[in-house]
Amino acid sequence: MDFQLRCNHLRCREKPKDKAVVTTCSHIFCLACSDSSTLGAGDSAARTCPACGTPLEKPYDVTVAALSPTDDYKMSILSGLSPTVIMECANSGLAFWAYQSSQEIYYQEHANKSLKQQLDAKNQELGGVKGAAREQIGGLEEALHEASDKIHKLSRSLAEMEEGRKSLERDRNRYRVSYEKLKQKALVPDIENAAEENAAFAAQGGDFGGVRTSRNGSVGTDYRARGAHKYR
Ligand SMILES: [Zn+2]
Ligand SMILES: [Zn+2]
Q: Do 29 and 50 form a contact (C-beta atoms < 8 A)?
């Protein structure tokens, strides 16, 4: 059996090494725990078990047990005793071991139960955290979806505005062409008049088409100005 005894002081639970203090109430303590309790006191009348409180007044109610006895010790310790006494001693030793085993099993079961409860509580907590995180992620996804929708709408508006701008640009170009044509058309009579006027001036001996002083005293070749002077 791989079971190993532990000090029955619940806050200690050390594995006693070579020696341990054992009691007739089937408890065992490490030397340090024994020394710090009434077991270590010189007065046997004052001894009580630190684990169960049983009074341990008789001389052999508390003994120091060698946990790794030597061969010579094993050879001699029961020698001289009758088989009945040997069996009584052996039965007591086995009962002690059985009690310690059952106590350890109970302790481990309780520790496992406690660990499981803690684990369940942590899992529940984790479940809550996961739920909150899922909810937050859902909210963020919704916000992202809305933002994406807004971006698409803005993109569409931008495309429409760009289309409008291109349309305006086309209109502007069309109007510019029309304007140029109209302007050209409006200038034709002026050009014709200016040409006729200059021709008449040349016929009277003036310089045709060059830089000259006009009849109204201005200097230059701006026939449009002269045309305007006459026809406007
Ligand atoms: Zn101890
Ligand atoms: Zn006890």
A: yes
Report how far residue 168's alpha carbon sits from residue 145's, in angstroms, rounded to the nearest whole number.
Answer: 34
Q: Does the reported pTM lie above 0.85?
A: no
Ligand that lies nearest to the alpha carbon of residue 30, given by its number in the listed order: 1
- The ligand placed nearest to the CA atom of residue 48 is 2
Nearest-angstrom CA–CA distance, 62 and 44: 9
- Domain map of the chain by residue range? 19-118
CA–centroid distance, 87 to ligand 1, in Å, is: 30
**For the packed helices 223-231 and 83-203, what is the interaxial angle rounded to 10 degrees?**
70
Helix (H, G, I), strand (E, B) or coil at 23: strand
**CA–CA separation, 34 and 18 (whole Å):** 15
Handedness of CA 50, 89, 4, 98 (dihedral sign): negative
Longest dimension (CA), the chain: 175
Q: Give me 129's structure tokens.
A: 């955290």
CA 78 to ligand 1 center in whole angstroms: 28
Asked if residues 194 and 224 have their Cβ atoms less than 8 Å apart, the reply is: yes
Please answer whether residues 5 and 22 qualify as being in contact, where contact means their C-beta atoms are separated by less than 8 angstroms: no
pLDDT tens digits, residue range 95-115?
999 999 999 999 999 999 999
- For residue range 40-73, what is the model confidence (pLDDT) as tens digits? 877 888 899 999 999 999 999 999 999 999 999 9
